[in-house]
Amino acid sequence: MAINSILVIEDDRFIGEMYVRSLQRAGYTVDWMVDGNDGLIAARNKPYDCILLDLMLPEKRGGEILQVLRGQQDLIPNTKVIVLTNFDQDEHSRLAMEHNAEAYLIKAEITPKKLLSVIEKLSAS
Amino acid sequence: MEVKEKPNQRPQFLRTFWPLYKKRVVGLVLGLQVVAGLSIVLLYLSVDRQDPYLSWGLLSAILIGQLVATYVVTLAILRPLHDLSRALVHVSGELSSDTPPSLNDDYYKNSNLRPLLQQIYELASKEGSDDSKAATQSNSAASLPAALNTTSTGLVLINAEGQVVFANKAAPVSVAPGGDSKLELIFDVDQPLEEWLVECRTHDIHAEKTWKRIANKLPGEDSRRIFDVFASYEKGSEAEVVVTLFDRTLDYSPEEEDLDFIAFAAHELRGPITVIRGYLDGLNDELASAMNSEQKELFNRLIISANRLSGYINNILNASRYDRRHLQVHLSELTLTDIYETIADDMQLRAKAQRRLLAVNFPPSLPTVAADLNSISEVLGNLIDNAVKYSNDGGSIEVDATVSGDFVEVSVTDHGIGMPANVIGNLFHKFYRSHRSRETVAGTGIGLYISKAIVESHGGKMNVRSVEGHGSTFTFSLPIYATVADKINKGGANNQEFLEQSSSGWIRNHGAIRG
Asked: What is the pLDDT of residue B73?
């Protein structure tokens, strides 16, 4: 499934801008939400091909958003979810989240260039 | 005023049994003696004493007869004692294949032993009767809540309507204005107790679940306690859910604060690093044509420093997890090349920037290993980074691998400053910095400590050989995947079970790693 539209849910301005910049340069259509509530509303109202989801978000944590979107039933079956966090979660929460997402990445370890290659990989799968 | 009967009279049981018994015993013993004595006297008077054979023979016969008679008489005397002891064993409840004697026998009737034995057996049956059972039960029920209130382990019973029907003193429950009690716990995990219960009620007859490190209050609040919570669910039972809470506040508390602090500090540090690494990577490409070679060199140093910083944070997080026994490795089938590729660009850049020659030679014939990609690439990165730091300008660094038994052994060799023998023993200690490193080389002194821990939690070993002035070789071993594949598959994604099942020595230390 080809990925064209991407929702970025990220509260850090610099990081958000950096991702948006590199994704747009690579030709993706990008929406960016800075808090959890807006992010969840956007994710439910528009069928994105891919969501980049931060965890430590204001209003609503990324974990809660993922729980709503994928917990009981998969509300976004045609969307790839990439969890992007710098927070070192405990093993248990991390595994639970990996289960509901297509990728789980540490932001500090992923440059935009690497992120693009991950998205391409998901796009091809 | 009531006058008590004087106890000068003998109890009735003794009055009926004892005199008769005494009379019989005395009669039997005396009778036996008299018969024996008379027999000897008669023998003495009547037998022809000239015939020694006859007199000796008769004497022997009398003696044997007396022995037999003594035996029979003694048994008869001891019989009540035997019956009484059997009866007492029965009352004591001790297991025995003995059946009670039939008390209607003439023997018991005639000897007056029957009422005595009957009384004893009745004692036993009384103890087992329903009335007395109920009495003991109500006794223990009365003391049970009191006993439960003295323990530090919380116990909460919840009925099918979700109401708390019992909670002992140690259980963290809050009472709502309406009088309803509510379990006061903050489940910061994916499936809190309530959700689990909902699932149990729809799917399960019997279920159990354990939660670790569950606090009743937020950090910083008064009387905050941290529990390991165990819940069991039994459909249709009066107390449908039994929740047991082990108060682990003392075990967890200081660690908990550290954990929060380190995890949050790392989160904060990683934010700026994300931006620095991200833009450095992007700008390096975008500005490639605009920079001269010196600027490119300086740019590479920025990239290397940002990468190192990121690596140090990972080391600190891993060491913190390890110290807290939270370090877990997720083994999968990998080639060493898979592992090295994740850090190859970074390592080559570091070697090049400090003018070292990094030669990585993993023969394609090497078997696959069971490894956690992230942690082992951090181990390899730490070792190569050390080799770069502690070797000389223009020096070469060789990374090789060979098969050794059930393991693949990876070695990282430098030809740099090396170490004296007395340093090697301390090398893997936390915060230890090598003798010359304090002034000249940056680092946290945590890299080797955590690398060793990671390798050991894979079941491997880490070693070092070094000659001062000639360089060092660090080796670490990883299990060949084929040798542990069965165990990994059995253990599922989380290989905890597999690690714990493995026998003698090959997972050393696993007890120290898992909490």
From this structure: 87
